Recover the amino acids of this structure.
């Protein structure tokens, strides 16, 4: 009785040591090797005459049981030398129904056999298998299934220097305990390896996307530069013709020319936005910061945009503060671009009524509001309004533009330490506000 209790205690301690060793590692190659070495070490510790352990895992895609690891013992080396094959080269076809390893891996209980021809043939011939077995001093072999969550994962193969009748039921139970731990370890390692592989593939794909994005930015920048010069020249020539510098122009022809001028002007703004985005995303956008009186810039931009608002019959008004506002630190050319974008959008999406620009100081910020009486912005579009190439579906089906103006404007204002926000209700118009910090003196 005392002997049985001691054996049970030794068995439990061996399982606990094995669990700690195997489950401490997640790398698949290390895990499978640790399995074979650690299991054999514990079997030697229990003095059960075990000579080698081989781990084979099922590969359903290839239809094989692949030997992935074996214990590093002199017996294993002798067996390989005689068989003239590395154990890792052994692939047992899953369709070989006579192979004991295949039978066991399909869910049968532990099987004990006398000859390796039942274990490693094919790929070894029966003569080679038996010669390798003799060289390793293996008299019997126990094959135990590795099963996780009801699914077969392969088998552990134990070679021992004793006949089958000397393999006790207690040993069989010990081996079952080992294979339960091995199943957990292999499953964890496979999941980790799959995750690691997926992470590396994702990183590689991400690098490729970055390179494609860089090439795209280079193309956009080159194309925009190539387009801007001829379009600027076209704008100049159209302006001269409309103004009569080349002779009197019929009113109907002037109307057509004015349309061409405005279309060309929109293309120039689009090209400028594309250049801005290219510079922003490559970190090449340069800001020349200086202290400016924002009211003067707003008034200048309003004056240049009034012709568009008057053409649509819209009242465009700047309610200039009665007292001078504090200066702010911005790039004057870039802030002009922001004002032009916000007011230009308001004109585009307002069919009647008015557009009013107002300013106020709040929480040490200079706020500039652009309020229109247009159709407003659909609620489903509001969350994506400042995204690149996003064009809101305004009520009434009014569309147009590149969807870049607000995206660029927000980035520019963010660079000055402020932000661009909006408030809109369908059918009641919109108010876009950009804020610029006021420096404390």
């Amino acid at each position: 009785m005392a002997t049985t209790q001691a054996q049970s205690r030794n068995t439990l301690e061996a399982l606990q040591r094995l669990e700690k060793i195997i489950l401490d590692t997640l790398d698949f190659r290390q895990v499978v090797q640790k399995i074979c070495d650690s299991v054999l070490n514990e079997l030697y510790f229990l003095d059960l005459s075990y000579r080698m352990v081989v781990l084979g895992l099922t590969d359903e895609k290839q239809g094989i049981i692949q030997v992935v690891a074996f214990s590093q013992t002199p017996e294993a080396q002798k067996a390989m030398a005689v068989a003239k094959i590395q154990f890792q080269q052994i692939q047992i076809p899953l369709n070989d129904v006579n192979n004991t390893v295949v039978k066991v891996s399909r869910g049968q209980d532990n099987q004990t056999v006398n000859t390796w021809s039942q274990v490693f043939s094919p790929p070894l011939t029966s003569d080679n298998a038996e010669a390798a077995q003799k060289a390793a001093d293996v008299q019997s072999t126990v094959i135990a299934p590795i099963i996780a969550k009801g699914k077969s994962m392969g088998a552990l193969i134990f070679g021992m220097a004793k006949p089958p009748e000397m393999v006790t039921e207690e040993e069989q139970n010990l081996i079952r305990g080992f294979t339960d731990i091995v199943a957990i370890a292999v499953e964890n390692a496979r999941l980790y390896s799959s995750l690691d592989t997926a992470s590396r593939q994702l990183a590689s794909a991400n690098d490729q996307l970055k390179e494609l994005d860089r090439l795209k930015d280079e193309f956009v920048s080159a194309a925009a530069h190539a387009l801007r010069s001829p379009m600027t020249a076209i704008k100049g020539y159209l302006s001269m013709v409309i103004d009569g510098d080349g002779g009197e122009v019929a009113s109907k022809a002037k109307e057509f020319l004015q349309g061409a001028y405005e279309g060309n002007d929109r293309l120039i703004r689009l090209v400028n936005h594309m250049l801005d985005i290219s510079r922003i995303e490559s970190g090449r956008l340069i800001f020349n910061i200086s202290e400016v009186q924002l009211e003067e810039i707003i008034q200048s931009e309003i004056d240049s945009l009034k012709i568009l608002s008057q053409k649509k019959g819209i009242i465009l008004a700047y309610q200039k503060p009665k007292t001078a506002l504090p200066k702010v630190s911005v790039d004057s050319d870039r802030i002009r671009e922001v004002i032009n974008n916000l007011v230009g959008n308001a004109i585009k999406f307002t069919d009647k009524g008015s557009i009013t620009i107002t300013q106020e100081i709040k929480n040490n910020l200079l706020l500039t509001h652009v309020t229109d009486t247009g159709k407003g912005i659909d609620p489903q579009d509001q969350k994506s309004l400042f995204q690149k190439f996003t064009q809101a579906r305004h009520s009434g089906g009014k569309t147009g533009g590149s969807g870049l103006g607000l995206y660029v404007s927000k980035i520019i204002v963010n660079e000055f330490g402020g932000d661009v926000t909006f408030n809109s209700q369908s059918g009641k118009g919109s108010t876009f506000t950009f804020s610029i910090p006021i420096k404390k003196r």
